[in-house]
Amino acid sequence: MADQLFNIAAVIMLISLVLAIVRLLIGPSVGDRAVALDAMTIISLSLIGWIALSTGRGIYMDVALVYGLISFVGIVAIARYLERGL
Amino acid sequence: MRNFKARVILLILTLCIWYLLTYPFDSQELIAGGITALVIILLPLPGIGILGDFRWTPKAFIFGFVYLFYFLWQLLKANIDVAFRVLHPKLPIEPGIVRVKTRLKTPLGRLLLANSITLTPGTITVESDGEDFYVHWIKVEGIHDKERTKKIVTGFEGFLEVICG
Amino acid sequence: MEILGGIFAIAGSVFLFLAALGLIRMPDMYDRMQAGTKATTLGTMLFLIGLAMAEPQWVGKSALLILFVIFSNPLSSHALARAAYHAGISLGERAACDELAGACEDEEETA
């Protein structure tokens, strides 16, 4: 029962990931694309948590943590690039 | 003194992070983490002084605890607000960037205030310049700076002034 | 307890979905950022709380992830908003005022 609830949650998150990818593709300015990428990394962080649950391996939680750290640094690097070039 | 306090707070922070990371504890990990944290705070760390802005008094701890719940409540309100605006067929928005002033003096207080503003209903901090914050507001209300300042920052400022001046 | 965790997870994923819907529906970049920052923060928080309820031995890592998301998400969105403003991305047609540029249309200079 609980597994099914988590699977439904994962399906909803996959749909929202697709919506964010649509914004990433059509976004008129580079800022829109960066915002979409930011949202996508957060959604996929939750999806990695779901993978950890469904496979029953705690090691994926560490993967999610490192993924979050790297995506934060990546977004800040993109922001700096937008502001004044590298 | 401020530097010493910052290092003690950093020690507590690193220990908390390590113990959360290795949650089902075992004694070897506890000891190794403690030694590593002690070594880390002895290193020369530039820019650590910002952590020394926390206050030690019991009042500050109580206010910090209450602030956490106030913040979570505001976050929930912000999300219901966003959900309402997204699902509304006409998109009731009227965005703009407004200037608000803060009374907080310390860098840490301003950092926490800017983060809190970003996560509360309809506002995102865009730029900060001394005591002025420039805030993107999804539905601009009020007419003068004072009115807007009251609506956006006063609730958090009361708590943060006690926690870290 | 596990069922309650599942309900939390579904609530979180609904907020994530609303964030993505906001990304599509909002008319200009800063409003998209409003939806994309707040709703994803609460959505991830709720999902991780649900995860910690379903698997109690991961509660430490979930708590760490929640703290990290609360701190990093506003910071990265603030950096993006500032960069976008200085890169000259406009506020959109509906914008009422822009005090960072020095002018505000609905505010009469009385004082």
Task: Explain what you see.
- The complex is a heterotrimer of chains A (86), B (165) and C (111).
- Chain A is flat and about 50 Å long.
- The termini of chain A are far apart.
- By secondary structure, chain A is an all-alpha fold.
- The mean pLDDT of chain A is 87.
- By secondary structure, chain B is mostly helical.
- Helices cover 59% and strands 12% of the residues of chain B.
- Chain B has a three-stranded antiparallel β-sheet.
- The relative contact order of chain B is 0.14.
- Chain C is built from three helices and two strands, in the order αααββ.
- The C terminus of chain C is likely disordered.
- In chain C, α1 runs antiparallel to α2 and α2 runs antiparallel to α3.
- By secondary structure, chain C is mainly alpha-helical.
- Chains in contact: A-C, B-C.
- Chains A and C meet through α1, α2 and α3 of A and α1, α2 and α3 of C.
- β1 of chain B pairs parallel with β1 of chain C, so a sheet runs across the interface.
Q: Which two chains form the greatest contact, residue counts included?
A: A-C, 52 and 53 residues
Work out the count of structural domains of chain A: 1
What does the largest sheet of chain C look like? 2 strands, antiparallel
Q: What is the count of β-strands of chain A? A: 0
**Strand arrangement in the largest pleated sheet of chain C:** 1-2
Run of helices and strands of chain A: HHH
Binned, the helix content of chain A reads over 70%
The SSE order of chain C reads HHHEE
Radius of gyration of chain A: 15 Å
User: Roughly what is the average pLDDT of chain C, rounded to an integer?
Assistant: 80
Based on secondary structure, the structural category of chain A is mainly alpha
Q: Which spans of chain A have pLDDT < 50 for at least 5 consecutive residues?
A: none
Radius of gyration of chain C, CA atoms, in whole angstroms: 19 Å
Oligomer: heterotrimer
